[in-house]
Design a protein that fits this description.
The chain has about 600 residues and is an alpha+beta fold. The protein is built from 10 helices and 29 strands. The protein has helices spanning about 5-25, 30-45, 325-340, 355-365, 380-395, 420-430, 460, 520, 575-580, 590-595, and strands at about 90-95, 100-105, 120-125, 140-145, 145-150, 155-160, 170-175, 190, 195-200, 200-210, 210-220, 225-230, 235-240, 245-260, 260-265, 280-285, 295, 305, 315-325, 345-350, 370-375, 395-400, 405-410, 435-445, 465, 475, 500-505, 510-515, 570. The strands form 5 sheets. Strands 10, 11, 12, 13, 14, 15, 16, 17 and 18 form a 9-stranded mixed β-sheet that branches. Strands 19, 20, 21, 22, 23, 24, 26, 27 and 28 form a 9-stranded mixed β-sheet that branches. The longest helix is centred in the first third of the chain and has 23 residues, at about 5-25.
Length: about 600
């Protein structure tokens, strides 16, 4: 039975158990009360007509002239709509290469929505040439691609790209509503502002870090891998007084910059009131020679405060990763590294729609201390890791940035073997070597190992043939010792002056990188690379780079000899360790095959 089938089975069993418990509580008296209540409802319905549209939230028009848009007035529910949902509004739209992303404020907290079904929403498109008087009659509708929560008070909706004749000013409505668009008609069209931003040029996220705010920006064109001069940049904070219906903008200096990250000083005496406000970046005209005036970039970013799981002390060792449609890989990766001593997990979900969120939720319920952070911004892995480093600084002494196809391994010759060995390694440097802020580990790349289909027992057991020499390295870092720019090139971060890094010898620790898996898995890499400064595989760039698969072109066409490629050395050491330590002797199964942990997990 597959993991997904077991998940559905557990849900069915849970539902049956809940109904059994409810049945025990129903007495004759409660049944009489229920019958009386239903009779009352029938009486009410004969005098007060009920409409299904009364249970939908309203999106209202909002405007903001400087920093993109959001409503400057209190949002209230329309009288024709019930109070069962929080009010919603479309704050912004960002046009990506494959879809339009809508950022929506408010939440549907009392219903469970199917994310992959677009949350019960439809996307409404209008022709570019149609005037507003004719819009009520001339529009097209497509089903929303995906719905998800984003932060504490916002959600995101992905809509298909408009046709060539339609505007990108996409609106929303609930599935099943009648045609027509005016709110006065009671049809449930969900309106919002007219702001449309291009993904190539937008401020997309911001978060606190002590007495500063770290802002994430597309469009600055800073050189990758280099610290940049922040002096041409300014930071613009917009404050809103809802009682007086007034707005003001405060400008501060940027104090650090690199790649897509700008660190801003907070306005004086405003530290406690900056959460949730809009922030953007201004660029001096000397930096933009085509403009004679400072340019203020469009922004969809609100300053967020990172949520911290309650703990009396910092975790010794944490892990952060970014995933796209890796539901089948997450469970094995988490269970294995938890056995090595990982105490806390940060999963940045980069637009997955394969049930990854369900796998992460189940692991958290199984006490793996794992959290999912929605990160809808494509090709921003470096920025996402910078964002994660800020979260980890408050919770973790050490954190590793790695992918879900990478596994730490300690050879038999290593003094660090067995359960909690990885945590033991970093603990040593916490207590004895304060000057070391980064631990680098070499990666060995494994190939398909003769397989043509997914290995039933997981990657650690299935793939056993690799390239002879290691490729690159991955790092474990101290988040409190990172450079203020948070500059990283995925594999390692820049660290503060006075600290140094350590290269672990291969006889101490290695990383098995299951990079070239069976074609069914590997071809997904052609969709889009997550790293900002690495060319997508469909692009005819850097074809000889180690970031690409040697011998492959720009199309996802399986070579005839794919199962036997990248095989120079047979290496079964990690497979043998996993089989010896994780196999259930009564069933012969590994925990990720069963869908539940065989080892009761705790963070201790």
């Amino acid at each position: 039975m597959s993991v997904s089938e077991q998940r559905r089975k557990r849900k069915r069993i849970g539902k049956l158990s809940n109904w059994s418990l409810l049945a025990q509580f129903f007495s004759v008296r409660s049944l009489i009360l229920c019958f009386s209540f239903l009779s009352f409802l029938c009486f009410i319905s004969t005098t007060i007509p009920l409409n299904s549209s009364g249970f939908h939230p309203v999106l209202v028009v909002s405007s903001l002239p400087l920093l993109s848009s959001w409503s400057s007035r209190t949002v209230e529910l329309d009288e024709d709509f019930g109070g069962g949902f929080l009010p919603l509004e479309i704050e912004n739209r960002v046009v990506f290469p494959d879809y339009v992303l809508l950022l929506v404020s408010g939440r549907r907290e009392d219903v469970i929505v199917e994310k992959s079904a677009g949350g019960g929403l439809e996307c409404v498109y209008f022709a570019k040439t149609v005037n507003r008087e004719k819009r009520n009659a001339e529009f097209t509708v497509q089903k929303a691609l995906y719905f998800d929560e984003y932060g504490e008070f916002r959600s995101i909706v992905r809509c298909p790209l408009p046709s060539l004749n339609d505007s990108a000013e996409v609106k929303l409505r609930w599935v099943g509503q009648k045609t027509g668009i005016s709110r006065e008609n009671g049809n449930g069209l969900l309106l919002g502002n007219a702001t449309v931003n291009s993904w190539d040029n937008v401020v997309y996220s911001a978060t606190f870090d002590g007495n500063s705010v770290v802002v994430f920006v597309k469009g600055l064109s800073f050189r990758p891998g280099r610290v940049s001069d922040p002096s041409p940049l300014t930071c613009h904070f917009e404050w809103e007084d809802r009682e007086r219906n007034e707005k003001s903008v405060t400008v501060t200096k940027a104090i650090a910059a690199a790649q897509e990250v700008v660190r801003c000083s907070l306005p004086e005496n405003r530290h406690g009131s900056a959460e949730g406000i809009r922030v953007t970046i201004g660029v001096a005209h000397s930096f933009h020679p085509r403009s004679h005036n400072p340019v203020v970039l469009p922004s969809v970013a609100r300053i967020s405060r990172r949520k911290r799981k309650r703990t009396d002390k910092k975790y010794e060792f944490c892990v952060c990763t970014m995933v796209w449609n890796q539901a089948s890989a997450i469970r094995e990766w988490v269970m294995y590294h938890a056995w090595l001593g990982v105490e806390r997990w940060f999963i940045y979900d980069n637009n997955s729609d394969d049930g990854s969120d369900e796998v992460i939720s189940e692991l958290d319920l199984e006490n793996y201390n794992i959290s999912r952070h929605v990160w809808p911004w494509i090709k921003t892995q470096e920025a996402g890791f910078s964002h994660c480093a800020l979260r980890a600084k408050e919770e973790c002494k050490w954190i590793s940035f790695m992918d879900v196809d990478e596994y730490f391994y300690f050879p038999h010759s290593s003094p660090y073997t067995g359960r909690n060995s990885l945590r033991g390694l970093v603990s040593k440097f916490s207590s004895s070597s304060r000057a070391i802020a980064e631990i680098r580990t070499s990666c060995h790349s494994f190939g398909p190992s003769g397989l043509s289909s997914l290995p039933a027992k997981g990657v650690t057991v299935g793939y056993t043939c690799r390239l002879l020499s290691p490729e690159r390295h991955k790092s474990i870092v101290r988040p409190d010792a990172l450079d203020p720019t948070l500059l990283n090139v995925v594999h390692h971060f820049h660290i503060k002056k006075g600290y140094r890094y350590l290269n672990l010898p291969e006889n101490i620790a290695l990383i098995n990188h299951y990079k070239y898996q069976v074609w069914e898995v590997f071809r997904l890499k052609f969709h889009r690379r997550v790293a900002t400064y690495v060319a997508d595989w469909q692009e005819n760039q850097n074809e000889g780079s180690r970031d690409r698969a040697p011998g492959l072109g720009t199309e996802a066409i399986e070579p005839p000899d794919w199962p036997h490629r990248f095989c120079e050395v047979w290496d079964t050491r990690l497979r043998d360790l996993v089989v010896a330590n994780f196999t259930d002797h009564s069933t012969g199964l590994l925990p990720w095959e069963m869908g539940d942990a065989l080892f009761p997990h705790s963070s201790s």
